[in-house]
Amino acid sequence: MTNSDAGRKRVVVTGLGALTPIGNTVEEYWQALMDGKSGIGPITLFDA
Is residue 33 packed enough to be buried (19+ CB in 10 Å), middle (13-18) or exposed (0-12)? Predict the structure, then answer.
C-alpha cells in the first residue's frame, strides 16, 4: 500500500434490497414503477 492509499476505505456491494410503500422486494418495487404506481399519498395520521 502506498501513502496515497492509506486513507482510503473499501466498500463492497453484495446485494440489493428494497422496502418501500410500493414493494417489499426489488422485483415488486421495480414492477410497481413500471406499472406507474406511486407511493405518495396524503398524510392522514397527524396534522400537516
Answer: middle
